[in-house]
Amino acid sequence: MSQEVNIDTEFITLGQFLKLADVIQSGGMAKWFLSEHEVFINGEQDQRRGRKLRSGDIIAIPGFGEFRIQ
After folding, report:
1. What is the rounded distance in angstroms from the CA atom of residue 27 to the CA atom of residue 57?
2. Rounded to an integer, what distance in angstroms lies between the CA atom of residue 52 and that of residue 12?
3. How far apart are CA 10 and CA 1, in angstroms?
4. Is-contact 36 12, C-beta < 8 A?
5. Would you say 49 and 15 are in contact if contact means Cβ atoms under 8 Å apart?
6. Which residues span the domain enclosing 15?
7. Which among 4, 6, 53, 68 is most buried, taking Cβ atoms within 10 Å?
8. What gap in Å lies between CA 30 and CA 9, rounded to an integer?
9. pLDDT score, position 12
């Protein structure tokens, strides 16, 4: 079962999401995290910190879990 992450804007970036979902401690860790871990957005691998995530997107990070943007 995926965890829900609520946003109150049209979209957030993957870097912002990682901090919001408590995967990383600070936004500055996003670049490092994405270089060290695989991230899948709607089933496709994507490591771009600036990737826009919108409501309904599903983010899977092996070892960390699956998240759904609400």
Report:
1. 20
2. 6
3. 24
4. no
5. yes
6. 3-69
7. 53
8. 20
9. 97
Which domain CATH number covers 43?
A: 3.10.290.10
What pLDDT shows up at residue 27? 84
The token pair at 16 is 């912002």
DSSP string of 5-65, one letter each residue = E--SSSEEEHHHHHHHTTSSSSGGGHHHHHHHS--EETTEE---TT-EEETT-EEEETTTE
Q: Give the chain's domain count.
A: 1
Predicted local confidence at residue 14, as pLDDT:
97
CB-based contacts of 36: which residues, under 8 Å, 6+ apart?
none
